[in-house]
Specification:
Helices cover 40% and strands 16% of the residues. By secondary structure, it is α/β, with parallel strands linked by helices. The protein folds into two domains: 87 residues, Rossmann fold, CATH 3.40.50.10860; 132 residues, NAD(P)-binding Rossmann-like Domain (Rossmann fold, 3-Layer(aba) Sandwich). A six-stranded parallel β-sheet has the order 1-11-8-7-5-6. The chain is globular. The chain starts with a strand and ends in an 8-residue tail after the last helix. It binds NADP nicotinamide-adenine-dinucleotide phosphate (NAP). NADP nicotinamide-adenine-dinucleotide phosphate binds next to helix 10.
């Protein structure tokens, strides 16, 4: 039976290190790491994410600002706000909560964020740095960065000789995950909806990362014995056993089934999810250290 990778505990470790390092920076330079989270509109899920990011930032000892704009905000007004935050010395990390309302070009907004404050790691400069292995100066998107840290805790930093398969090729999870695994010397294959015989491909993986958005798609017979599985998926499914109309969260991996074959698996919830917000704090801290001309801690 596989070991359950405790993302909650590892995320708490990361946050403790962020807190200590933030206190050190404040004491040594007088600079308090600052994060600005921008939200446009009233999407309830986005409101919850933004509130939890603000809470975590305050817990880390950061200066934290939330800018809540009405759904009808114009693209120009949002660009103006981002430019203002780019120039604000109290702010080291800027996060614009996605999705944005349809009339706003999210690509333009993301490219307006200064690459030095792009703690989500979506700016082309940071995407390019990750793609060329410039990890010391890049910002890496938080979910893949957190997933990589979980792999690191199970298998160590050097993945030489190991085969990794990433299922999903999105810009926010699959592709950066591919580049991170490659940077850590794994032999990486990226799969997607057009991949032939996905199950057979997954069975070659010593490290299997699922970022698909299909509830419990990956079963035990897709898993190589002894594999490490990182389940990025978050899917809500009906849970009539909990009462009428109730739901529960599951990943892209059938946890109980896959755990009979794998060596280590992340649960959903409690795996990758808590790592994402912890890595946002880590990226903001790193941004503040860099702006102060100091060497940031490694996570
Ligand atoms: N834990 C976290 O903090 C966190 C953060 C971000 C996302 N997530 C979750 O991670 C999952 C993926 O997110 P995302 O933003 O990367 O999703 P996305 O943009 O929808 O991408 C999904 C990827 O999965 C591929 N795919 C879809 N169906 C497939 C199938 N049947 N077989 C093989 N590949 C298939 C797609 O292939 P094509 O490219 O060919 O269409 C696409 O590349 C979602 O459940 C999301 O909620 C979690």
């Amino acid at each position: 039976m596989a070991v359950t990778i405790n993302g909650k505990e590892i995320a708490e470790d990361v946050v403790s290190k962020v807190k200590l390092s933030a206190a050190k920076l404040i004491e040594g330079t007088g600079i308090t790491p600052g994060i600005a989270v921008v939200i446009v509109g009233e999407d309830p899920a986005s409101q919850v994410y933004v509130a939890s990011k603000g809470k975590k930032a305050r817990e880390c000892g950061f200066h934290s600002e939330q800018h809540t704009l009405p759904a009808e905000t114009s693209e120009e007004d949002l660009v103006t706000l981002v430019e203002k935050l780019n120039a604000d010395p109290l702010i080291h990390g800027i996060l614009v909560q996605l999705p944005l309302p349809k009339h706003i070009d999210s690509g333009r907004i993301i490219q307006t964020i200064s690459p030095d404050k792009d703690v989500d790691g979506f700016h082309f400069i940071n995407v390019g740095k990750l793609g060329t292995g410039e990890l010391d100066t890049a910002f890496v998107p938080c979910t893949p960065a957190g997933s990589m840290l979980l792999i690191d805790r199970v298998l160590g930093r050097d993945l030489s000789g190991l085969n990794a398969v990433v299922v999903g090729r999105s810009n926010i999870v699959g592709k950066p995950m591919f580049n991170l695994l490659l940077a850590h010397n794994a032999t990486v294959t990226i799969a997607h909806s057009k991949t032939k015989d996905l199950a057979a491909l997954c069975r070659t993986a010593d490290i299997l990362v699922a970022a698909v958005g299909r509830p419990q798609m990956i079963k035990a017979d897709w898993v190589k014995p002894g594999a490490t599985i990182i389940d990025v998926g978050i899917n809500r499914i009906p849970a009539p056993e909990r009462g009428e109309g109730k739901t529960r969260l599951v990943g892209d991996v059938d946890f109980a089934d896959a755990a009979t074959v794998a060596a280590a698996v992340t649960p959903v919830p409690g795996g990758v999810g808590p790592m994402t917000i912890a890595m946002l704090m880590a990226n903001t801290l790193v941004a503040a250290y860099r702006s102060a001309g100091k060497t940031p801690p490694r996570f």
